[in-house]
UniProtKB/TrEMBL annotation:
Protein name: Urea carboxylase-associated family protein
Recorded superkingdom: Bacteria
InterPro entries, alphabetized: DUF1989
Taxonomic path: Bacteria, Pseudomonadati, Pseudomonadota, Alphaproteobacteria, Sphingomonadales
Span of domain DUF1989: 2-124
Originating species: Novosphingobium decolorationis
């Protein structure tokens, strides 16, 4: 399982970008960031859920958020809700104030920006697009993932609000993927 704690420990930074590795809770390399034109991603916040929306946005419509999307998409793979870790939130802008307070701000990414990841082991990854109201992503952006033909599935063209797409990510031939903003 991906671990933000191990990743921060081993990479000695919370600002993950080109050259950094995402580590498992068993100290195994999972993904290497080969390229990154943004340099701003979040690995602190948990995926939003119904409870998150009740807490932070009580006056707005409630939905199941990324956590619900991931739970639904990963269940067929035997991954329970309790096994869903803190997410690596590509392009999510979560600055840390001097006081230690976190905030979710609009992304600093622009069309054409990308992150390129290389799998270091066999993985099952769930993708979903942030639907938190403060993120500036609600139903307005879609991430386009490039997959080698052997890994393509009809459901992987993009991840819009309200859905998640799981897929198996093999390490065959140092497989890589890029997420590029349209």
């Amino acid at each position: 399982m991906i671990s933000n704690g191990r990743t921060f420990d081993y990479e000695e930074t919370i600002c993950l970008t080109t050259g950094n590795v995402l580590w498992s809770n068993r100290s195994r390399k999972m993904l290497t960031i080969l390229g990154d034109t943004v340099g701003r991603h979040d690995f602190l916040l948990t995926p939003c859920s119904v409870d998150t929306f009740h807490h932070f946005y009580p006056d707005k419509p409630i939905h199941h958020g990324c956590f619900g999307n991931l739970a639904q998409a990963l269940a067929p793979y035997g991954i329970s809700e309790d096994a869903i870790p803190v997410a690596f939130n590509c392009f999510m802008n979560v600055p840390i104030q001097n006081s230690g307070r976190l905030s979710v701000e609009r992304p600093v990414s622009r069309p054409g920006d990308f992150i390129q990841l290389q799998a270091e082991c066999d993985l099952i990854i769930g993708l979903t697009a942030c639907s938190a109201y403060s993120s500036g992503l609600t139903a307005t952006k879609e991430s386009v993932w490039g997959f080698p033909p052997a890994c393509r599935r009809a459901s992987l063209g993009g991840c819009a609000m309200g859905s998640a797409s799981p897929f198996r990510l093999p390490t065959v031939n140092a497989w890589t993927t890029s997420c590029r903003l349209p």
